[in-house]
Amino acid sequence: MDGGLRLYGDAGILNTRTVRAVLECAIEGAGDDFQLDLDGLDYLALMTWAAVLQVTQDFRNQGGVLRVHARRRTRRLLAMSTVLESDRTNLRISSLAATATPR
User: pLDDT per residue over 17-75, tens digit each?
Assistant: First the structure.
C-alpha cells in the first residue's frame, strides 16, 4: 500500500511483536500522513492495538496523522478502547468505503 500499510488475517496476541516490528519499519520514513488499513483483518487483539498506538506515538506527537481504516465493528472497538487523550492525538479511524470516491 502506497503511503501506508495493509494488514490481513489475524493480529492476535501471538503475533503482536510481528505487527509492531512491521509497523515500525513502515512508518519510519513516512511523511505527514500514514494510512493503516485494518479492513482485511479477521481478528485484532486489544494488546496489538495498544502496540500500534505505542509504535505510532512519536510520529503522531510530531504532527503526523495516522489514518486507520477498519470494518465497522473493529472501528467501534478501537474508538471505545482508545480512551487516553494522548492515544487519540492525530488519530483518525474511518472506513475505506467512506473515503472511496463514487464512480
Answer: 999 999 999 999 888 999 999 999 999 999 999 999 999 999 999 999 999 999 888 88
Q: How far apart are CA 80 and CA 15, in angstroms?
A: 22
DSSP 8-state class, residue 13: G
What is the pTM assigned to this prediction?
0.83
What length does the chain have?
103
C-alpha to C-alpha distance for 82 and 80, rounded to whole angstroms: 6
Rounded-to-integer distance, Cα 64 and Cα 14, Å: 29
- The β-bridge partners of 34 are 66
CA distance 26 to 46: 21
* d(C-alpha 9, C-alpha 61), whole Å: 29
Task: Please report, in angstroms and rounded to a whole number, the separation of the first and last CA atoms in the chain.
Answer: 21
Could you tell me if 64 and 90 are in contact, meaning their C-beta atoms sit under 8 angstroms apart? yes
Note whether 96 and 37 are within 8 A (CB).
yes
